[in-house]
Write a structure and sequence with these properties.
With 348 residues, the protein is of the alpha/beta class. It folds into 2 domains: 228 residues, Aldolase class I (TIM Barrel); 108 residues, Cyclophilin-like (Cyclophilin), CATH 2.40.100. It has 10 helices and 15 strands. The longest helix has 14 residues. The chain is elongated and about 75 Å long.
């Protein structure tokens, strides 16, 4: 699991996001930036980009810079390693315009990130063997419908990890989105528009990604806090609406039973909490739609009081009360609860 969320920094939004970055500077978070975005180019681009890089370096961030032949032309520096040293850049992500031999030569002098979506396992192994440090970084996709599908993403990630590379990817933001499309910047298409914390958990748990960056310039403090808690405590926050008599469940850390089936999550501790010391009468025994939170009523005898999250819709059962619902945009978070994992319901 990544130690911290990485951030993406853009010259056009650096000033407005500086305070947020300063608050994350001591958390070991890396930053990603691009030195070849055409719409950012102006007569003072090189000076402003160098000032931004120096500021980030002084704050203690490890900078991964995306570069291409346009970077060489813009800065007038054919030696990218020397340019990186000048700007305080830790690693280079080599985009288009470089041969395999050029990439291998650069990798022998500075950590590099290969394009995870276009690098074969054989190429990755060849470069990694002679590199100071090499890893692979997937793209983000501004245009809707062009992000990666699960099968391709899983296959390429597994192949590159088998080649000995750590694999990095992007999740969308939830505040300031990057233009000109403003449709968020995920690696996986199905993550577009979903909460960053849910996407972060999905990439960690279901795909084994080693490092995760938010692609957009803005992410809310609330989502950052959820990601931080997941990284530091291993607790996944699940925003949900609970009926009034069961709101005492908010904030309690639960464990998914080791034998929970894929279609639901069984709360291991639910029948031992004092809130279920009273008789649970039958109420609201309706269809259990995906994301429903339920409690077994007295019709289940000694099993009365067990709480579950429904991950695949089930029919109504007069022995089961529906007491709440995972918020729709966080259904992905519920899918990330592994057996034995810890989680907590929050009111959002």
């Amino acid at each position: 699991m990544p130690d911290a969320l990485g951030y993406s920094v853009y010259l056009t939004s650096f000033k407005s996001r500086r305070k947020q970055l300063e608050s994350a500077a001591g958390l070991g978070a890396p930053v990603f930036l691009s030195l070849h975005i055409s719409e950012e180019f102006d007569p003072d681009y090189c000076r402003h980009a160098e000032e931004m890089c120096r500021s980030l370096s002084e704050l203690g961030f490890k900078i991964i810079a995306d570069v291409s032949v346009k970077t060489v032309d813009r800065f007038g520096e054919p030696d990218l390693v020397r340019l990186a040293e000048r700007l305080g850049i830790w690693a280079l992500r080599l985009d288009y315009g470089f041969s395999d031999d050029e990439i291998a030569a650069i990798a022998a002098r500075i950590p590099v990130a290969l394009n995870a979506s276009t690098t074969s396992r054989a190429k990755a192994e060849r470069i990694a063997n002679g590199a100071i440090q090499a890893f692979a970084m997937h793209n983000f996709y501004p245009r809707p419908e062009t992000g990666l599908d699960d099968a391709f993403f899983r296959r390429t990630t597994e192949e590159l990890r088998a080649a000995g590379l750590r694999v990095l990817a992007f999740i969308p933001g939830d505040e300031e989105l990057r233009g000109p499309v403003f449709e968020s910047l995920p690696t996986l298409e199905r993550h577009r528009g979903l909460p960053p914390s849910a996407c972060f958990a999905d990439l960690c748990i279901n795909f084994g990604v080693d490092g995760i960056f938010v692609g957009d310039p803005g992410i809310s403090h609330r989502e950052q806090a959820r990601i931080r808690r997941f990284c530091e405590e291993g607790v996944l926050e699940i925003p949900a609406d609970l009926s009034e008599e069961f709101r005492s469940l908010y904030g309690m850390v639960f464990t998914s039973r080791q034998d929970s089936p894929s279609w639901l999550v069984r709360f291991a501790e639910s029948r031992t909490y004092s809130c279920f010391g009273e008789r649970v009468t039958a109420l609201n025994c309706r269809e259990r739609l995906r994301g429903s939170i339920t409690v077994d009523n007295e019709g289940y005898g000694r099993y009365s009081g067990e709480v579950q999250i429904i991950r695949s819709s089930l029919p109504a059962d007069n022995r089961v009360n529906v007491i709440g619902q995972v918020k729709n945009q966080y259904l992905l978070s519920a899918d990330c609860i592994l057996n034995g994992a810890r989680f907590v319901l929050v009111p959002d």
